[in-house]
Amino acid sequence: MTKTLTMNDCPYCEGHGYVQLLLGGSETCYGCQGTGSDHEEDDDH
Fold first, then answer.
1. What pLDDT, on a 0 to 100 scale, did the predictor assign at position 14?
2. 5, 31 in Cβ contact below 8 A?
């Protein structure tokens, strides 16, 4: 089953809110901070 991205889905985690690590496990998505959406907000980085 293929999930299609909507305009609000984060391109890094595909709307899941987390990313799979290569060595196993997962972590909060760095692109959306776990929200799963692609709302570009002000960040102080």
1. 92
2. no
Give pLDDT, residue 13: 93
| Predicted pLDDT of residue 35 | 94
- Measure the CA–CA gap between 34 and 12, rounded to whole angstroms: 11
CA nearest 13: which of 21, 23, 3, 31? 31
Low-confidence ranges of the chain (pLDDT < 70): 1-6, 39-45
- Round to whole Å and give the CA distance between 31 and 39: 10
Distance, CA of 40 to CA of 45 (rounded, Å) = 13
Tokens of 36: 């799963």
Give me the residues paired with residue 28 across strands: 18
